[in-house]
Amino acid sequence: xxxxxxxxxxxxxxxxxxxxxxxxxxxxxxxxxxxxxxxxxxxxxxxxxxxxxxxxxxxxxxxxxxxxxxxxxxxxxxxxxxxxxxxxxxxxxxxxxxxxxxxxxxxxxxxxxxxxxxxxxxxxxx
Length: 126
Prior knowledge:
Layout: H1 2-24, H2 28-39, H3 47-68, H4 87-99, H5 109-120
Helix pairs in contact: 2-3, 2-4, 3-4, 3-5, 4-5
């Protein structure tokens, strides 16, 4: 019985540690360099760099789409970007927002991207 409990505890600790390491890949500090490289068209040196550049741009694109497609009643989360806003501009908005908040680099990239898009393009101003 003791061995089973010990094995379960070790499994939980290892699993939690792996999840924590995985979450670090989604901090602003981790993703921001890839976002910069993506918008400057810097050629990736490794295939994993290309994946991470795509991850940044894909997350920003998905968040922007979802936020602008929310019902008008959801004023707290909705954004209203101008119809001519490009994906590159949206990624630049996110980068600029995070750059002005260096103390928040260890926070979720997605959370900060949502804040950036919402602040740049609140509904009712465009």
